[in-house]
Amino acid sequence: MSPAGCSHVNGFKVDNWKQNLRVIYQCFVWSGSVETRKRKAKSCVCHLCGAHLNRLHSCLHCVFFGCFSKKHIHDHAKNKRHNLAIDLLYGGIYCFVCQDYIYDKDMEQIAKEEQRKAWKLQEFCKTSGIGEKYSMWEPTKRELELLRHNPKRRKITANCTIGLRGLINLGNTCFMNCIVQALTHTPLLRDFFLSDRHKCEMQSSSCLVCEMSQLFQEFYSGHRSPHIPFRLLHLVWTHARHLAGYEQQDAHEFLIAALDVLHRHCKGDDNGKKANNPNHCSCIIDQIFTGGLQSDVTCQVCHGVSTTIDPFWDISLDLPGSSTPFWPLSPGSDGSVVNGDGHPSGATTLTDCLRRFTRPEHLGSSAKIKCSGCHSYQESTKQLTMKRLPIVACFHLKRFEHSAKLRRKITTYVSFPLELDMTPFMASSKESRMNGQYQQPVDSLNNENKYSLFAVVNHQGTLESGHYTTFIRQHKDQWFKCDDAIITKASIKDVLDSEGFTDAHNDSQTRTQ
Amino acid sequence: MKMEDMSLSGLENTKLEALAHDVYSDLVEDACLGLCFEVHRAVKQGYFFLDETDQESMKDFEIVDQPGVDIFGQVYNQWKNKECVCPNCSRSIAASRFAPHLEKCLGMGRNSSRIANRRIASSNNTSKSESDQEDNDDINDNDWSYGSEKKGELMHSNPNSPRRSKSLKHKNGELSSNVNPELYKYNYSSGISYETLGPEELRSILTTQCGVVSEHTKKMCTRSQRCPQHTDEQRRAVRVFLLGPSASALPDSDTMLENDGYDAPDGQLIMSRLQWDGSSDISPSDSASSKASEFFMKPSTLTLTTTGSGGERDKGQERERGDRDRVVSGGSGSSSSQNALALSSRKKRPKLPVPPALSIYDDLN
Question: What's this model's pTM, rounded to 2 decimal places?
């Protein structure tokens, strides 16, 4: 018997009480479908006064409805000595002897199950795909005890440092530190790890996901001294040999390698569903970071289109100022041509880069593709668009150029927005773009393709040697600069003015539960 | 209020409004009731007051926003003395030196592969004298000998200093380490077997090298004439043994032997008999300086390098281009060979032509 229950329920818990209780919940409390609702409305009236409001209760021992406000149910209880009644609106059980609502564990279990069933029957669940009604966490008896014995709490409020921590540079490891900072501030990933959702199936102790989990514990521990990620470095080098070696590395490469290793080690977390099928992996990494890039190759002769969809974790964008020509298309500009050294009419934006990325590209006569329609080699155009957007989109600006003639860093300023709408770059929007029009997103209520910025990685220095720092967003609108072991507060202006090397955007559509 | 079916069409506005108002107030009441139940339950179950914190704890974790300090209110740069324990060797290492230590500890550095190579070779030959030599070399590979972290500094005196100035720098994924294990198969011993060599070849070798045969491995020492490991007596004895009593003179004494009927040994032929230390070729991003220092330190290994494209790599481009390329292609294994060859001439070794080793690299690629 739970502390919130009472002994008077024992009189009820006889024979087939569970089934009876279920019936009561199904018919009179939780109404899933339209029919049950109608039935409830028609049949649930007070037997004494005929009212259907006034906090109607049903007796648990016999078929009797009475209102609470007018004490009709109380009278019934006294007369018949039926001590338990159920509130028809919220399903709470009232004990007339205790004169209070009681919470019995077994009965609550049944109530929850019935509620879940009814929830699933409702129409909006079927259309929107929302599976479960959200239920808050409740502590168990043991947890309650622990919490009561330890009254000091660390509460995360808007002005709190918990969740932020510096990282010691282990010797040219700023590339790793900056990506780790970005990952630990990815909201979905943070939630996954803080709720202990990783179940390790690796035999050895070299699971990178476990180490990641440990990292989150370190970040939320409230410690002020910077964390030393030596174990993480060791594990990454063990699992991604091509990154190993004490010299300066590329942060973007590290991100891809880290995601790859995490994805491989996440096998145990997808509830056993198709663990090794690369197309259907449902590990947390794939759920958050993987998107689908559609590549359409159109034959110039027969106009047949051959489509392939590849998974991607990030989008690498070319920049103006590289030796490959850039083709800006800002609406409103009169199509001024930009060569490698010229200046565009305004600063290049991230959207410009994306537009260039998704433009139809004419593959020259030297790259003829065999067309299955014409059965011959023909010239074609290729276009990349987004088929499926990930929840977290990472954009990588290709600032390091390695062409045959030169190796340099492109320092062109690219402005990126706090909010980004990816709709024009979707595969579904291709039609309107092909016609030469660039449509502004009309449906601003549709949040599906809208992203908000939450992390920016910057690189200062040259190709040979430089330093990485990260700006991350915490607590909705506060930005912080993470420079290895030093975390300082930053303004939005600092963030938007920064050069940008890799930035991560979070899908702003929150899926409510 | 009785329950009845009502049609809304025939009603006047005021009645409709009254009805709407009734419905609205019912809904509000129900919602409030729901909230009351929630609170009641929380209190009864005991978790209602759980998320209250004390003022002190709140103050502790407030963000600080002042110049010169970070968000915790700490001054910058006070974390110089942090230490951590290496998961591999369980030694306590300074945190800022951990990466270079780990590189050697895991055998991923340039020197580490060479040392490991020797260890493999010596364990294959079960020789003790060879491993003695290597142990001496190993002692030199200490963490403390790693220089400062300053970028751009070139430290010739320190053979183990990390490479600083290179052509392709910002990222240096060492693809070579993928190639490493395979190349190990193709070598290796740090000496020469005299049994398989003809007299002309032996003579040629003995004019430039120490040549003393190790008791354990039965191989000739490939160090210089002035090799500290062996004495002149030993060298003379070897020459007598291998070339006959007339060959007792060392090249220093200027006596040259006349050979008739033998062609000058082909450099290529020698190379095919000699084993080479492939490990130093494997890491493509060795700089000239570090190769030089390696060379000076360990003259016993004959360095063979391939004449590759000299530092030009296209792996960078491959990586940049592919949004979806996750597989990193194996490195070409080419390295700045020109430097090694130039150095070798200083050491009075025969100029090495392009060795047949190139074919092995081709196989790997």
Answer: 0.61
